[in-house]
Amino acid sequence: MDGTVNTSKEDLMTTHQPKDHAAEVRARTLSALVDEHAVVRPDVPAVTAGGRTATFATLRADVDRFAAAIVASGLEPGDRVAVVAANSSAYLAMHFACSRAAVTLVGINWRLSAHEVGAILRDATPRLVLVDHDLRGLLPDSSEVTTVVLDGPEPGLEQWLSAGAGTPAVDRSHEDNILMMLYTTGTTGQPKGVMISERNVNQMLREMSRQWLMRPGMSFVNVLPFFHVSGTGAVFTGLFVGGEVVLLADASAESIARTIHERRITHSALVPTVLTAFVREPSLAQYDLSSLEVLVYGAAPSGGTLVQDAMALLPSCGFTQGYGLTETTGGVSAAPLRRHGDADDRPGTVGQATANYEIRVVDPDSRQEVARGTAGEVWLRGTQNAQGYWNRPEETAANFVDGGWFRTGDVGVLDADGYLYLKDRLKDMIISGGENIYSVEVESALTAHPDIVEAAVYGVPDERWGESVKAVVVRVPGSPLNEDAVLAHARSRLARYKCPKVIEFTDALPKSGSGKIIKHVLRQRDAT
């Protein structure tokens, strides 16, 4: 591995098997990965963010400083470090440093409310919290947890790093360590920490780098947040093969296009809301986007002509999507790369299982596999399956079942050739602007209002966001509660993107004989 690549874009996009650069990487942990590249390509750019470019040698030095500070803070292997911050080079270095120190990084969604952030912190019990200055208001008051401010007027970060000077950054990483915990909310409405090991991540890096045709010398522009597995996975994958990652704080279409033009970016991943803005951006004509080789899209409904329009805009670029969850450390299926003019033989598929992964579709009640072409619950098995939920043994047992399978709660169909098509969500998850929103969580927040008897929440089509949240609410008889009051209550307990965009009042909700709300009746009523 020397960082010099002679492969042409046309060669990369042919049907011939590309060179497997993942096989050349010996590292099995993030800590070992940064060391390996710092030896092989020390002067090659690794990370560009906030106007600063760090080579692999510089990145390793940053990682050593962060890891030493972690150890000097008294953290032991298995302890947790929470980060409430926007993407930055410091945040990225912290991921690698946590690997080196054998502690677990808990990435927290900074778009959540203070109430929600507090619940996650109480569950994760971190010994150290890193936070952006303008997000400090999300943290509960506590003198028991060390807090380090990453930016702003405080001398927090440099002071903390200086305290670790002289402490050896001994590599304590191991494949079985829990590298990170990312929180997702399930059908109970309670946040659950998904425990992702070094082994899970390493397998994901090897598979995704192959699927996305990544290689030494490539460059990846990233606007996906690190608190999502897609954001960390995309950036880690670019670094895994010895490429450069460019972190953009500005996710506007023009900023992305300008970066592609100026830095000759080869790879990116965009959620459909950003891709929609990209396609519609009038200033794109002034930028040369021909360097882009692979664009990954997904994480939200992508109906209509969006992908076709994007392909026409970037005719030499390969497009692909896949399927995965936090519990599977990201993508475990991938659709074939397509360019403008290529036939779409399987419209709507999220692809076949990646190597060393299995997909089955089962009857959710009998747990028996259904015939190909029949809808059922999607189950997944492979080395990317997470280690379960933190402090949730019952939910772990219910979802990570015998035989190594993970029950996704999604409804899908496998065709005769093993291509997966997603049809619905057993868990009534809503995806709005690339963010996962669970109806039970929103319903729980709404019914906490004393004048709300019941609420049914589900997704409705939204041209801009893919889906938006609709709430059908039953008020206490005689209550003057109105839409503004419901929305104000929701915003006091939930992140703004989870709050209902549409609120409807009704006297009663349709229910089954067992008392369960029948949401498909509400959806059908909307359609008429």
Short description:
The chain has 528 residues and is α/β, with parallel strands linked by helices. Helix content is 29%, strand content 26%.
Question: Care to describe what's here?
Answer:
The protein has 528 residues and is of the alpha/beta class. It folds into three domains: 9-249, Rossmann fold (3-Layer(aba) Sandwich), CATH 3.40.50; 352-423, Luciferase, Domain 3 (Luciferase, domain 3), CATH 2.30.38.10; 429-527, ANL, C-terminal domain (GMP Synthetase, Chain A, domain 3), CATH 3.30.300. Helix content is 29%, strand content 26%. The chain contains 15 helices and 26 strands. A seven-stranded mixed beta sheet has the order 2-1-10-9-11-12-13, with helices on both faces. The chain has a six-stranded mixed beta sheet with strand order 6-5-3-4-7-8, sandwiched between helices. Strands 17, 18, 19, 20 and 21 form a five-stranded antiparallel beta sheet that branches. Strand 11 (267-270), helix 10 (272-280) and strand 12 form a beta-alpha-beta unit. Helix 9 (253-263) crosses helix 10. The longest helix has 17 residues, at 56-72. 48% of the residues are buried.
Question: Architecture of the largest domain in CATH?
Answer: 3-Layer(aba) Sandwich
- By CATH reckoning, the class of the largest domain would read Alpha Beta
The CATH superfamily label of the largest domain reads: ANL, N-terminal domain
> How many individual β-strands?
26
Label the overall shape. globular
SS-based structural class? alpha/beta
Mean pLDDT, to the nearest integer, reads 90
Reported for the largest beta sheet, the result is: 7 strands, mixed
Strand order in the sheet with the most strands? 2-1-10-9-11-12-13
Number of helices: 15
> Helicity level, as a percent range?
25-40%
Q: How large is the radius of gyration?
A: 23 Å
CATH fold-level name of the largest domain: Rossmann fold
CA distance, first residue to last residue = 60 Å
Return the domain count. Answer: 3
Strand residues, percent? 25-35%
Low-confidence stretches are 1-7
